[in-house]
Design goal:
This protein has 274 residues and is an all-alpha fold. A two-stranded antiparallel ribbon has the order 1-2. The two termini are 62 Å apart. The protein folds into 3 domains: 6-60, no CATH class; 68-130, no CATH class; 147-273, no CATH class. The chain has helices at 6-15, 21-34, 38-48, 52-60, 68-81, 89-107, 116-130, 151-158, 164-187, 192-213, 223-234, 247-259, 269-273, and strands spanning 239-240, 243-244. A hairpin with a 2-residue loop joins strand 1 and strand 2 (243-244). The radius of gyration is 32 Å and the shape is rod-shaped.
Length: 274
């Protein structure tokens, strides 16, 4: 609370019995005479015209919640909940505060009302800016001993598109993407809802190719439809939290999905691997 606000101090003194009702009214009259806003003067006059018994009850029931520091901390806590990095919170708060103050100033004496849709449309960009670009971490860990036992490798073997050296590369792609997802979530750069949307989008893109190319993996053409699905899917550039991923990270996500398995290349992949 601003301790220099004479009105607040006087009301509190009146509530505590340290000032009379008449002293409170004189303070309000002084404030009315100091303002040049005719609308505010009218509101003050309405209060001054209250009978003493009514006015006394009115002022005794006024409560002030102007803990500015507490309000700011609550705002910053809400920003943190939006998965903004801690070192960007103050900057984001300043940008939002400045923009909102400008809006209020331009509206002058009009009531300021911002709907959720308007806030999302006009101010979500500040959250996106504050979410500094997620760093892609290299994977330098150990690989599984038996690479060909991984389901995603077996699925690639079904369509004859992997050799021993590629097993190593593709496994690294998978593990690098997997580790980056865990790291981004641990750092607060990526929300679970964003990851869920990312995963859903990746599967949808795969499904579009799968429906177009899939055929029964039977006979001489066993590998061909699956190869087409794989090759088209590898061209996809995935985006997570408004950030485009590199090709090997995008491919790595599809290897993760086919390893679970949640996607496949042959039409009978579910029957064979799930």
């Amino acid at each position: 609370m601003n301790e220099e606000n004479s009105f607040i101090l006087t009301v509190k003194d009146f509530q505590n019995g340290n000032k009379s009702y008449e002293e409170l009214i004189r303070t309000i009259q002084t404030l009315r005479d100091q303002t040049k806003d005719s609308t505010i003067q009218e509101y003050i006059n309405d209060v001054l015209q209250l009978a003493k018994t009514v006015g006394g009850k009115f002022f005794n029931n006024i409560r002030f919640d102007l803990g500015c520091d507490e309000i700011i901390n609550k705002c910053k806590a809400a920003i943190t909940a939006k998965m903004v990095n801690k070192n960007k919170i103050d900057e984001l708060f300043r940008n939002l505060d400045s923009t909102l103050r400008k809006k209020i100033f331009l509206q002058k004496n009009e009531k300021t009302l911002i709907t959720f849709e308007e806030f999302h449309q006009k101010y979500s960009q500040y959250f996106q800016i504050a979410r500094e670009e997620m760093k892609e971490y290299e994977f330098n860990g150990d690989l599984p001993e038996n690479l060909n036992e991984q389901i995603f490798i077996q699925q690639l073997m079904d369509i004859e598109t992997v050799d021993e050296s590629e097993m190593i590369d593709y496994t690294r792609y998978k593990l690098q993407m997997q580790n980056n997802i865990h790291q981004w979530m641990a750092e607060g750069c990526l929300a679970k809802s964003e990851f869920d949307q990312f995963k859903k989008d990746a599967i949808t893109k795969w499904r579009n190719h799968f429906k177009y190319y899939s055929e029964d993996c039977v006979g001489k053409e066993i590998p061909e439809p699956g190869k087409n699905i794989l090759y088209e899917t590898r061209k996809v550039t995935l985006s997570i939290a408004s950030q485009n991923l590199s090709t090997y990270m995008s491919n790595g996500q599809y290897y993760i999905l086919s390893d679970h398995p949640e996607i496949g290349w042959c039409r009978n992949w579910e029957k064979k691997y799930k």
